[in-house]
């Protein structure tokens, strides 16, 4: 089976339900950039995709960074003297600032206040806050919750450990005919947030599960990593392997109802950039293509000047551009199965074009070969050009070893799949050969 075959039999309703189902399972798992919640998430993904889990010890230097201590949260709350919990991590791990140091104290509301984070502009939402690299602690709550807190003394408990351990990431290599790789990377460190970032985990898992059944030209490397520190750690440990990455996509925010947005590679003119632009254009759906910028997710590590890998990012509404971003409103209801399915289909389309984007040479380059006698051209003359013949004629004309199929499709203003089919028919008729110099 090829990726094109996968697309031909793609069942959007099933794929959407499968991805949303995985998100529902993973939503309550208390994830962070290290720790048991991250491990549990990766183990669940490993049930669908043959991931290897790597553990990198605390203190390992990774370029200018150091693998941090491992954080595990058992319980956290703010309770009044009667024991009533006014803020309770059992309800949502968003209520604790990620990487909070352990705390056990009795504090007045005034003393507690500097450690409380709310969103006055969205009074019903709980914000997502972390402090990975500065030792502090805090709680997040809605403005409404904050306004209701009576004056008085509170028991403040963060029962967590921040200790030497390891950073975990998941990796899977699907071997294709070529050693050149396509990287699919997603972060997996956010707690109870759906679009950012469970949707990325769910899409990469569904994609991997499907690719596992395929014969591919490229090899595919899947990385499920904690954001920033995960890609830095992987790059530090795999500098040689990184050179084999020919194209890469960072999967993030792929489940909201918004249009697809492609963030280009740092180079801006990579083959991947042209492929994605073509697929989005041919979809005839509303979409946006934006230039690279050096913030966002792990694309900025892959695209640092010492690597400069052609890695872009395909999302729906980009991070930070929807008001639910990094708040409790980015929940399971915010992510729609049909959006997940549309995103997955688009990823498959892109991979199908990358897989099929070869150069060809005509075996009969001096004047047009006679197509009629090979059953490739209409039998009755005199009719104006028939649409099904145009891809054949373009393909033959540009089969000089200089043009990739995508370049033929763009020049002919035809969908890639039509040009791909024409090339296959001409190869079958002995009129084209694949150019090895690709
Ligand atoms: Zn995020």
Task: Walk me through what this model shows.
With 438 residues, this protein is α/β, with parallel strands linked by helices. The chain has helices spanning 3-8, 12-26, 36-46, 109-112, 143-148, 194-211, 229-237, 239-242, 271-283, 299-302, 337-356, 390-397, 405-412, 416-428, and strands spanning 52-57, 61-62, 65-66, 70-79, 85-88, 103-108, 116-117, 139-140, 153-163, 166-174, 181-187, 219-225, 245-251, 260-263, 287-290, 311-315, 359-362, 400-404, 432-434. It has three domains: 3-67 and 166-356, Aminopeptidase (3-Layer(aba) Sandwich); 75-163, 3-Layer(bba) Sandwich (Glucose Oxidase, domain 1); 359-434, Winged helix-like DNA-binding domain superfamily/Winged helix DNA-binding domain (Arc Repressor Mutant, subunit A). Helices cover 32% and strands 23% of the residues. Strand 11, helix 6 and strand 12 (219-225) form a beta-alpha-beta unit. The longest helix is centred in the last third of the chain and has 20 residues, at 337-356. The protein is elongated. Residues 190, 196-197, 319, 326 line the site of zinc ion (ZN).
């Amino acid at each position: 089976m090829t990726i094109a075959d996968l697309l031909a039999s793609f069942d959007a309703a099933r794929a959407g339900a499968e991805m949303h189902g995985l998100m529902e399972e993973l939503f309550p798992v208390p994830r962070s950039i290290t720790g048991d919640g991250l491990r549990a998430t990766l183990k669940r993904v490993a049930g669908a995709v043959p991931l290897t889990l790597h553990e990198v010890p605390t203190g390992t230097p990774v370029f200018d960074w150091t693998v941090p201590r491992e954080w595990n949260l058992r319980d956290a709350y703010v309770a009044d003297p009667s024991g009533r919990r006014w803020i309770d991590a059992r309800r949502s791990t968003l209520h604790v600032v990620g990487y909070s140091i352990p705390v056990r104290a009795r504090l007045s509301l005034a003393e507690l206040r500097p450690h409380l984070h709310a969103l006055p502009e969205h009074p019903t939402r709980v914000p997502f806050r972390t402090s990975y690299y500065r030792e502090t602690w805090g709680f997040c709550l809605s403005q409404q919750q904050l306004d209701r807190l009576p004056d008085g003394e509170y028991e403040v408990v963060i029962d967590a450990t921040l200790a030497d351990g390891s950073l975990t990431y998941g990796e899977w290599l699907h071997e294709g005919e070529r050693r050149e790789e396509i990287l699919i990377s997603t972060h997996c460190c956010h707690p109870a947030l759906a679009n950012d970032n469970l949707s990325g985990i769910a899409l990469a898992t569904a994609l991997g599960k499907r690719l596992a059944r395929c014969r591919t030209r490229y090899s595919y490397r899947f990385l499920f990593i904690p954001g920033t520190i995960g890609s830095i750690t992987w790059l530090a440990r795999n500098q040689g392997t990184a050179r084999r990455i020919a194209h890469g996509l960072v999967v993030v925010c792929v489940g909201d109802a918004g249009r697809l947005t492609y963030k280009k590679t740092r180079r801006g003119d990579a083959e991947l950039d042209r492929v994605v632009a073509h697929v989005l254009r041919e979809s005839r759906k509303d979409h946006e293509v934006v230039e690279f910028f050096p913030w966002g997710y792990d694309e900025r590590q892959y695209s640092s000047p010492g690597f400069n890998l052609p890695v872009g990012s395909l999302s729906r509404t980009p991070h930070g551009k929807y008001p639910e971003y990094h708040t409790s409103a980015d929940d399971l209801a915010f992510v729609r199965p049909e959006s997940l399915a549309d995103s997955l289909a688009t990823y498959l389309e892109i991979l199908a074009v990358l897989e099929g984007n070869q150069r060809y040479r005509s075996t009969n380059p001096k004047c047009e070969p006679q197509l009629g006698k090979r059953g490739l051209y209409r039998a009755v003359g005199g009719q104006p050009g028939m649409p099904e013949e145009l891809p054949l004629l373009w393909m033959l004309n540009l089969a000089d070893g200089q043009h990739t199929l995508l370049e033929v499709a763009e020049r002919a203003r035809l969908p890639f799949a039509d040009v791909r089919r024409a090339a296959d028919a001409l190869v079958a008729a002995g009129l084209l050969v694949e150019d090895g110099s690709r």
